[in-house]
Amino acid sequence: MRKLCAAALLCISSASTADVKLYVFDCGRISFDDVSMFSLSNEETDVRQLFVPCYLIEHDAGRLLWDAGLPLDIVGQGKVEVRPGAAMWYDASLLDQMAAMGLAPSDVDFAAFSHMHYDHVGAANAFKGSTILIQASEYVAAFERADDNAFFNQTLYADLNDAERVILNGDHDVFGDGSVEIISAPGHTPGHQTLLLELDNFGPLMLSGDLYHFEASRAMRRVPEFNTDAAETLRSMDKVEAIVAATRATFWIEHNQALADTLKMAPAYYD
User: Are strands 172-173 and 165-168 parallel, antiparallel or unpaired?
Assistant: First the structure.
């Protein structure tokens, strides 16, 4: 199987032999009146609404959940104020969307989260029977020092404390064939990570976690005020962008609402 190597950081298959499918779920919205916390002025972007996705990857060797959306207790509650000038809403839960496909959390073999902020782990406790793939630095931040990290709500993932887990210290080939690669990209949180997929028909695809929140963030290399390490974030941007360039991957900013409006939602899929 021919390999592509991205800037000596990672090798992936140029054509995976596995049957890989990607399902995209609508796991809510967040709106902001003021985007300055993202180190953008309100004049530099007119975007005020962020999409919140969840993803399910089906591979011949198992299923991987990537990100778990907003907290389940806001489902069906309409707009819920996070703080003055910020709100979130969530119409149909990830679990209900999966159930409509005949899937339960027990059908998911692995769960990995780009990071442990509340809008990425809302349904995490439901996947306590899955094997959790988490960077060592994120595990410490989330389970041992949650009170020291902005936007970590330990009640949303407390059940994972007893889950089977694989502690990562860098990039990780989930199924061992280069088709699903976790890419260590710290800085937004101590153990933030992205996900690189090799899809036979769609081609390489990078799911960017919160490396960027807006297209303007990527274009101007802006680091949000609340990131744990700005310099580390910039290094992660360089690393991920090098991989994207080397593999010619499509790049999805997960929170991009304009992008989400163009995507096929589950039960449709990308392969």
Answer: unpaired
In a domain, 238, yes or no: yes
In a domain, 137, yes or no: yes
SS (H, E, C) 228-268: CCHHHHHHHHHHHHHHHHHHCCEEECCCEHHHHCCCCCCCC
**Cα 159 to Cα 96: distance, rounded to the nearest angstrom:** 20
- Smallest Cα–Cα separation from 186: which of 206, 198, 203, 171? 171
Q: Say how far apart CA 165 and CA 132 lie, in whole Å.
A: 4
Residue 58 belongs to what H/E stretch? Answer: strand 49-59
Domain extent for 217? 3-260
Q: Residue type at 16?
A: S
pLDDT > 90: percent of the chain: 92
CATH code for the domain in which residue 233 is found: 3.60.15.10
Say if 271 falls within a structural domain.
no
pLDDT in tens, 208-261: 999 999 999 999 999 999 999 999 999 999 999 999 999 999 999 999 999 999
Query: Could you tell me the two tokens for 165?
Result: 């887990």
Question: What SS3 class is residue 64?
Answer: strand
The pLDDT of 161-167, averaged and rounded, is 96
Give the angle 79-269-54 at the CA atoms, nearest 5°. Answer: 35
Identify the pLDDT of residue 11: 52
State residue 13's pLDDT score. Answer: 43
How many CB atoms are closer than 10 A to CB 34?
13
Which letter, b or e, does each residue of 90-107 get, where b requires 16 or more Cβ atoms within 10 Å of its Cβ? beebbbebbeeeebebeb
pLDDT in tens, 11-44: 544 445 689 999 999 999 999 999 999 999 999 9
